[in-house]
Amino acid sequence: MEETSIIISGFGGQGTLFAGQVLAYASMDNGLEVTWIPSYGPEMRGGTAHCTVIVSAEPIGSPLVRRPDVVVALNLPSVDKYEPLIKAGGVMVANSTLVNREITREGINSLLIPANTIAEELGMVRLSNMIMMGAMLALKPILPLEAVKKALGEHIPERHKKTLPLNYEAMDRGYQFAVDHQ
Amino acid sequence: MVATTEVIHQRPESFTDVHTHYCPGCTHGTAHRLVAEVIDEMGLREQTIGVAPVGCSVFAYRYFKMDFVEAAHGRAPAMATGIKRVLPKSTVFTYQGDGDLASIGMAEIMHAAGRGENITVIFINNAIYGMTGGQMAPTTLAGMKTTSSPFGRDVEMAGYPLRMAEILSTLDGAGYVVRRSLHDAANIRKAKKAIRLAFETQQRELGFSMVELLSSCPTNWKLSPQDALDFVAEQMTPVFPLGDYKVNPALESLKV
Amino acid sequence: MAKELLKGNHAFAEAAIRAGVEAFYGYPITPSTEFLEYMARRLPSLGRAFVQAESEVAAINMVYGAACTGKRVMTASSSPGISLMMEGISYIAGTEVPAVVVNVMRGGPGLGNIAPSQGDYYQMIKGGGHGDYFPIVLAPASVQEAVDYIGLAFDLADKYRAIVHVIVDGNMGQMMEPAELPPMREISETAPDWAVRGAKGREPNILTSIYIDPVDEEVTNLRLLKRWKEIEKNEVIYKEYELDDAEILVIGFGTSGRVASSAVREARENGIKAGLLRPITLAPFPTQRLLELTDQVKRILVVEMNSGMMLDDVMKIVKGKVPVEFYGRMGGVTPLPDEVFDEIRRVSQNTGPGAEDPRDEWIPRLEKIIAGDK
Predict the structure, then answer these.
(1) C352 C-beta neighbours (distance < 10 Å), count
(2) Based on C-alpha coordinates, what's the Rg of chain B?
(3) A36 and C5: CB-CB below 8 Å?
(4) Which residue range is the domain that position A150 belongs to?
(5) Are C65 and B79 an interchain contact pair (Cβ–Cβ within 8 Å)?
(6) Which of A143, B135, C264, C268 is most buried (most C-beta within 10 Å)?
(7) Domain of residue B240, residue span
(8) pLDDT tens across A164-178, in order?
């Protein structure tokens, strides 16, 4: 596969770093090269948290990119920051619950998805990251949805294991929303 | 009549056959000898690692017949920690002066004691920097003249002497912290007992042990050896009272 | 063993454990703290030593003590902490005992920031501590390389009784990549003949860095220098990409070398004959290979995350035979592949003579980039 760079960005506590790790595990388990690199330090304390994941069939050079192929934006500051940077032909999935504007950038494939609303319907607002991930995989099938679910099942922290079925459902809902609204 | 010799006194096995570089009248030699005798009596020589400081006793490793390392100034307790933690069955001691222990090495000594490191510290307090030629030390007495307090230590400007035995005895990690003096034979005997108890503390893994030894520096004090010893007795002991500041109860019944 | 997805700091620490490290003494500092935290969890259960020291000064002196016992020992810190450790590092070098120090570099000078940097190049490569000594410096660029070269660092430290620095930056410490860990090495119970472990049945060992007679010190300095010459001969490691027919030689280490490899790939896709030399041993530097390449290429571009420190070493070797250009980001800014690609393209079109100091031409370019970035 072509080298694909994905930035997952949101507020601290929205699970952006973990979502990136799940994607990284799934990539590794499917025989791909992958790098995951977080923002770190004081900016993590209550500010934005983002990670860059690069997936490729070939060894990866830089773990960082200026212009990502895919952006998963869980809040408005992330849309503001990355909308102009996405590569032409790239993908942006944004959380419309927290992004009260349209995505105007031409030449990219974008989707607004009410991730928090769907998460609340499922009974747990912290599922928004997995809803977004499901939607992203529908728009940019880097890996099959099932492969990412498998990775999640294997790497979800022990204390959250009981929420695994809900997490799977969140991915499905996100994926289906993207299919229905494309 | 067959002549028989009975050895009543000889060089400790823990000493090398080397003359020390210490000045005439200096009590370092006495302190060295007490440490060597205690190590001999406890049979520890072959398992002991000494840590020499920076100061007059920088060459201590030449005089003790045992494994030795040479620390950076003030860092002997850290170095001893590094050794003891990988060789917990060995006996590790540092030998430090007042500038080394109470000035540049204050952090290292406090935290080694705070952690309860099973090491023994022999602390030579002679109230002056000897090796660099007689500058003010953290233990220099108020009013005492040194090359860097030429008009006498002015406590308004240079503060007060630090009482390390008292300070360290407040720490929970300390098992045995006492102050002794080397100014006469009776006190030297008491000092040796204290050194023995300090090494016993380490053997019993009762935590950090330190013996502070009030010592003389005739050269930099510009006194004769006897006057220097009198100075210790008359001027230093009021400021640095001799005594036991921390003794783990497990040591109290020990007869040495 | 299968590959695992490993975070840099954790992977380096685990690799050190598997290489037989018996003690870790350190002090918390971002972005290397996870190294310490990992050791705090792992070492006690293995019966090995861990102490969170009161300062980096104490930590390195604990390392010094344990190094004198001949057991494998290390610390990890980050730039300001490494500055504090320089005292002990010099003593370790002067006493000729083996130890490994990992520096997860961050922006400076001073308190600087916690972002990734290569600004400690001079400090690490040229010594940093006082006196005449030569540290070995390894600069891995991926989690797998870090895992591999930390094992090598211990081997080299033992072989040459030397201090070995492994330098990475915050990117490497924080990133996750699949890597394969080596199997656990068995710890040798045999003490090296110089080690202090108690003089049982032998003459005492004395380990010191003091040589009061200048001639004795000179003999020591000479021994260290001759040993360094051996190291220069035997231990050079580097990686190459696309160098066979390269006309533009890009040189970068660690993260900047890795970023440059992406840029070189893009350059090739655009028909520019660029190639990359990525030193893994910054000391000893791959001087011989650079000399060979100097005869082959038309221009050289040095890429660093500092103000041109390795650049000076490259200039010294190239001696003006080929124009050398420079592109650096400083202060904790990581260059991105497109910046480096733009530089490669620019360099490939530049036929002018090289500047005496390539920084003179780089400074206005950087000022423009900073103005655009903000």
Answers:
(1) 8
(2) 18
(3) yes
(4) 4-181
(5) yes
(6) C264
(7) 28-252
(8) 999 999 999 999 999
